[in-house]
Amino acid sequence: MLNASWLETFTTFCDIGHFTRTADRLAMTQPGVSQHLRKLEQQVGQPLILRDGKSFTLTPAGEELLSIGRARRSEERALRDRMQRDDPLIGTVRIGCSGSFALWLYPQLIARMLQAPKLVIDLNAAPQSQIMAEVAAGRLDLGVVTRAPDMPRITATPLCREELCLVLPAAFDTTDLTLQRLDALGFIAHPDGNAYADDLLARNFDDYRGAEQLRVRSSINQIGQIPLPVAQGLGYTILPRSGVEAFPKRDALSVHALPDRRFHDLWLIARKDRVAFARVAATAEGITAAVETRG
């Protein structure tokens, strides 16, 4: 590895062409400049300059080294410019959230990217525990979770409350709704379905005996397709409201409000050092604004 300090001294000397003025530019002594040049020659094993009185010429090795020195300067200037710019509309932002929230959020993020051609957004649907771990490790910049993590270096901002919805076919008669009628219709199961059923149905039907006792009509793990069989009258399911709102055939669904409604608090989380990045802070503000507009 070339010594960066010696290389910069050599490059400056080549630009100025004078030992004393080089020393003044670099806040060094003239013997110090000469010493850097000698050490650099020793490192590469070849002479770099040929002296002729008070002037000098570069050897072939010196010309090659000068090109490297100037290239490094250019790279460092470009790096400093990028670091100082920290443009809120340039760079990559990585976000993690639940599958249902991702269905609603992604169109909002697409609209943002259309306004910012140099902004790259990587959206990942993942379980809550994974999102928290990935944010803590710095592999995600932002996360949307249902509880605020107790981690000193993680910030957690309340985002909204999202209702857990009993989703039925639009034509289904909800008069005198019972668990037996739901069971006759059949449950559209999905990876979070059992947990949602235990949370919502157990509080609203005295005869509920656990999700494993529900009659499953179909099962699917593609979050965007879960409402599809419901829309076609094949069963019912339970989803956060964002998963219902993102479904393109929303008119084919009915959300029935049970007496004991259930809500999950959503939190926007980030590592404290990441929210200092302009693009991360701006994206977080955009998500918050979109949620507020949604109501």
CATH structural class of the largest domain: Alpha Beta
The number of distinct structural domains comes to: 3
Termini gap = 58 Å
Task: Name the CATH homologous superfamily of the largest domain.
Answer: Periplasmic binding protein-like II
Q: What is the number of helical segments per DSSP (H or I, 4+ residues)?
A: 11
Q: Using only CA atoms, what is the Rg?
A: 32 Å
Series of H and E elements: HHHEEHEHEHEEHEHEHEHEEH
CATH architectural group of the largest domain:
3-Layer(aba) Sandwich
Poorly predicted parts: none
Shape: rod-shaped
Percent of residues in helices comes to 40-55%
Looking at the structure, the CATH topology of the largest domain is D-Maltodextrin-Binding Protein, domain 2
Going by helix content, strand content and strand pairing, the class is: alpha/beta
Number of strands: 11
Largest sheet: 7 strands, mixed
Share of β-strand residues: 15-25%
Task: Let me know the average pLDDT.
Answer: 92
